[in-house]
UniProtKB/TrEMBL annotation:
Record's bilayer topology term: Single-pass type I membrane protein
Coiled coil: none
Keyword Magnesium set for record: no
Organism: Helianthus annuus
Keyword Cell division included in the entry's annotation: no
The protein, known as: Non-specific serine/threonine protein kinase
GO cellular component terms given for this protein: membrane
Entry's localization field: Membrane
Length: 503
């Protein structure tokens, strides 16, 4: 039996005799090395499906490792291991037999739990590696310098591990990886190096295969080389959360394939050029918490594929132009700029795909709420610190998906609805510091079991609590604002509140 099973491989080896002799290990030896590697790691969750699959391959000498879960072979050699998302744990150290698999081109151990492991320098022995994915897998310590020998890599993902990149830094690491298409080092601390070792290397702009660059939360420094924006295949550029990384947006050409651009929380400054409208494929533009100044370019309305527009917390001035043509936008995030007093009547009501609308501190002097009636997909309305007047219209109850309503610090007046009960998903309601008057009762909030934050303070309201509630109908609040609410006694329902405030 064993003879019959082995024969095809014997023949295969004869056929590819040249490659077989060039390799260090035979097919069986590779399977043994893989098996020994597998024995050093184990599955955390003994009940899961993944565990069954993983463990079913228990005795290598009886079976062909190429047939086992997540293993790919070519010409009798193990060229791929994909054990991603299997809840694996264990220690991979320098003597691991993994590093004997010299033909390995794909290694995917992402989404596991190797918290006791560092990445051994011996990884550099896997010189044929094209795709290396160790993201979300707990590896810690330093990224070994020997990584730079992996010159054939086309995708490298070490993101979301507690890793550090020491001297000589990013430049040394990437210099020889000229075939890179996909690079994600998000969460790797690159500040450990000194001087220019924490900056983004200029030569990245010459890596013409790059289509995905993600270096979020890397503690990068210095000026970002703008030429990188012009990489011909670049679709995804994500440099967010690097507050010491400075840079400017270049003039854009209409040959760009860029779809997603995240630069939030960086030191980028200067203007947003009109030529941004040349980015015909752009879907995500995330420029929050930078230092952009001047105006929102009028040409922005040409970016009709945008689903996400984030410009909050910059120094943008002038008027917000009509964005009526951005009909696919689901998230509009513009707060805390220096916009002039303007009106949004003409267009905001047409953006019917909006899920999240953030317009805080935007100098809005409109009676804007009636214009939201058709935006029935809204889950977040955040418009605090404006001069919005009028009352909350009854059409507002059309917005039954709302989770967050933040209208604090405005000029709103009139009665509050007798009932917010239509908002079954409501978690956050703050309407303090307005001019609401009349009475509002506890029963307006009974049954809103997801409500966590309720703040109606500093109005001309009187808050009355009835007593016919049951514990089951009370929301479990973590924040309640009732100051200046004309309370006539201590609200009895508070005795049944158990949550601690989570800031
Ligand atoms: C490497 O790990 C294996 C088991 O996982 C262990 O037997 C061996 O002693 C370790 N070697 C070193 C050098 O730590
Ligand atoms: C991984 O293990 C943890 C606990 O050990 C378990 O809660 C989780 O559901 C597991 N995940 C998978 C994908 O099996
Ligand atoms: C693998 O199979 C061989 C022969 O069939 C047997 O002698 C050996 O004990 C098995 N090893 C394991 C780990 O099950
Ligand atoms: C690794 O596996 C994950 C999950 O299956 C997948 O999303 C990712 O694209 C894979 N990485 C590579 C380099 O193939
Ligand atoms: C990069 O490649 C060059 C030429 O092949 C080699 O001399 C150099 O040592 C390599 N650099 C690194 C950091 O591996
Ligand atoms: C930014 O640079 C300053 C001065 O070098 C340093 O103190 C700070 O920790 C840096 N911040 C980040 C997020 O890297
Ligand atoms: C973009 O919009 C401007 C007007 O703001 C228009 O003149 C221009 O032709 C548009 N460009 C493209 C590429 O559609
Ligand atoms: C809501 O949509 C209807 C039908 O499309 C339209 O007639 C109405 O004017 C819209 N209301 C607002 C406030 O935009
Ligand atoms: C919104 O509410 C108003 C009044 O309550 C109603 O006339 C209108 O048909 C509703 N619109 C939608 C889109 O449900
Ligand atoms: C609320 O205030 C308005 C004037 O702003 C007033 O006309 C109305 O009578 C007040 N309502 C109550 C219930 O106090
Ligand atoms: C509480 O009592 C009032 C009138 O007495 C009634 O209208 C209301 O529906 C009651 N609320 C609940 C939650 O039972
Ligand atoms: C609410 O529950 C507490 C104990 O969990 C109980 O003492 C109290 O009587 C209940 N109150 C109401 C109104 O159901």
């Amino acid at each position: 039996m064993a003879f019959i099973v082995l024969r095809p491989f014997f023949l295969l080896c004869l056929l590819v005799l040249l490659t077989c002799t060039a390799s260090l290990l035979s097919h069986d030896e590779e399977c043994l090395a893989l098996f020994q590697f597998k024995q050093t790691i184990h599955h955390q969750n003994y009940d899961a499906d993944g565990f069954q699959k993983f463990e079913s391959w228990s005795n290598i000498s009886n079976s062909d490792c190429c047939l086992s879960d997540g293993v790919v072979c070519s010409k009798g050699h193990v060229i791929g291991i994909d054990w991603s998302g299997r809840n694996l744990t264990g220690v991979i150290n320098s003597s691991s037999t993994l590093f004997e698999l010299a033909h390995l081109q794909i290694l995917n151990l992402s989404m596991n739990n190797f918290v006791e492991s560092r990445i051994p320098p011996e990884i550099a022995r896997l010189k044929q590696l094209r795709h290396l994915d160790l993201s979300y897998s707990g590896f810690n310590g330093h990224i070994p310098n020997e990584f730079s020998h992996l010159m054939l890599l086309s995708s490298l993902d070490l993101s979301r591990n507690p890793l550090k990149l020491p001297n000589p830094g990013l430049e040394y690491l990437l210099k020889n990886m000229t075939s890179l298409e996909f690079l994600d080092l998000s969460g790797v601390d690159i500040s450990v190096g000194s001087g220019s070792f924490s900056s983004v290397p200029r030569f990245l702009a010459n890596f013409s295969s790059l289509r995905h660059i993600e270096l979020r939360d890397c503690q990068l420094r210095d000026e970002f080389p703008s030429a990188v924006f012009h990489l011909p295949k670049l679709k995804h550029l994500s440099m967010g959360n690097n507050s010491n990384l400075t840079g400017f947006l270049p003039e854009f050409h209409n040959t760009s394939l860029l779809e997603k651009r995240y630069l939030f929380s960086t030191g980028f400054a200067g203007i947003i050029p009109e030529s941004i409208s040349n980015l015909n494929h752009l879907k995500v533009l995330s420029l929050q918490i930078c230092h952009f100044s001047w105006h929102i370019p009028g040409s922005l309305h040409n970016l009709t594929h945008l689903t996400y527009l984030g410009l909050a917390e910059n120094e943008l001035a002038g008027l917000v132009p009509s964005l009526v043509s951005l009909s696919k936008v689901t998230i509009l995030d513009l707060p805390y700029n220096k916009f002039e007093k303007g009106s949004m009547y003409g267009w905001i009501n047409k953006l019917t795909n909006l899920n999240e609308l953030y317009l805080d501190s935007m100098n809005i002097h409109d009676e804007i709420l009636p214009y939201l009636a058709n935006l029935t997909k809204l889950s977040i309305v955040s418009m605090s610190q404006n001069f919005i007047y009028g009352s909350i219209p009854s059409s507002f109850t059309n917005l039954t998906q709302l989770i967050v309503i933040d209208l604090k610090i405005n000029q709103l007046q009139g009665q509050i609805f007798s009932s917010f009960l239509k908002f079954k998903s409501l978690e956050y309601l703050t309407i303090g510091y307005n001019k609401f008057n009349g009475t509002v009762g506890l029963e307006s909030f009974l049954g809103l079991n997801k409500l966590e934050v309720l703040s109606i303070d500093q109005n001309s309201l009187s808050f009355v609590t009835t007593s016919n509630y049951t514990n089951a109908t009370l929301p479990e609040l973590s924040l309640l604002g009732l100051s200046s609410c004309n309370l006539k006694g201590f609200p009895a329902f508070l005795r049944f509140q158990t949550k601690k405030w989570k800031p």
